[in-house]
Amino acid sequence: MRVTMDAIAHGQRKQTFFDRWAPRYDWLLPSVFYQAVHQRLCEESRLPEGAHVLDLGCGTGKLLNRLAQQDPTLTGVGLDFSAAMLAEAQRKTVDRDRLTFVSGTTDQLPFAPNTFDAAFCTISFLHYPDPVAVLRAVATVLKPEGCFYLADYVPSKWTEQRFWDAPVSSASVQVYPKQARERLAAEAGLRCDRHVYLLGPIMLTVFAKVAPES
Ligand SMILES: C[S@@+](CC[C@H](N)C(=O)[O-])C[C@H]1O[C@@H](n2cnc3c(N)ncnc32)[C@H](O)[C@@H]1O
Question: Which fold has domain 5-209?
């Protein structure tokens, strides 16, 4: 894909938006809602003992900390492109032996193939300019039996463009209904196993890796 100056400038604007939000992120209203989404997501996820998991667009690390609290055998990595979000995640994480946080963009994951038992992504996918590239990158780093848990907005009156054009948003977002998630998955070598409404307009889609034909 040709990376235009516009795309780079746009990515930098988003990074700046999240850097500014980071110090207040955990106590502003959307995040209280997102933490309730995390709780519902944990109820829906099935992980093997000793699971090694990835959180894409991890923000302040709340989801990983919740997962680690529930399962003392779990280890995890959070990835985000906002330095300020990562600094908050590092500062707030109690068990630094089990949880680490790295800087990166979600379409170029700095991990070896077949590394993770599961990957998560909550309220971050809507910001990605190239969703198929992200799904392909996730498919590569998941183990053959691994699952990808994507929780994000679906189209509704709250996700109409005029809502995202408000000054509180980082704008230029894209939300995907069930059918679009299934189409993107097929392009990326993943399969949609189920869709579940978690809370309000947030839908979880669980993806599995498609086994290569022998
Ligand atoms: C609304 S926050 C959600 C954070 C967290 N997942 C949660 O549930 O609270 C979106 C996060 O995605 C990150 N993000 C957005 N686009 C990204 C990209 N292309 N690569 C890496 N991180 C990204 C932002 O920096 C921000 O931390």
Answer: Rossmann fold (3.40.50)
Between CA 214 and CA 203 the distance in angstroms is 34
Give the SS3 label for residue 208: strand
Sign for the CA dihedral angle at 10, 178, 28, 109 comes to negative
Q: At 85, is the pLDDT very low, low, confident or very high (cuts 50, 70, 90)?
A: very high
Closest residue CA from atom 10 of ligand 1: 124
Q: Which of 124, 126, 148, 202 to mutate to test the pocket of ligand 1 (most atoms within 8 A of CB)?
A: 124
**CA 1 to ligand 1 centroid distance, Å:** 22
Give CA–CA dist 193/142, Å, rounded: 15
What pTM was computed for the model? Answer: 0.92
Q: Is 174 exposed, middle or buried (0-12, 13-18, 19+ CB in 10 A)?
A: middle
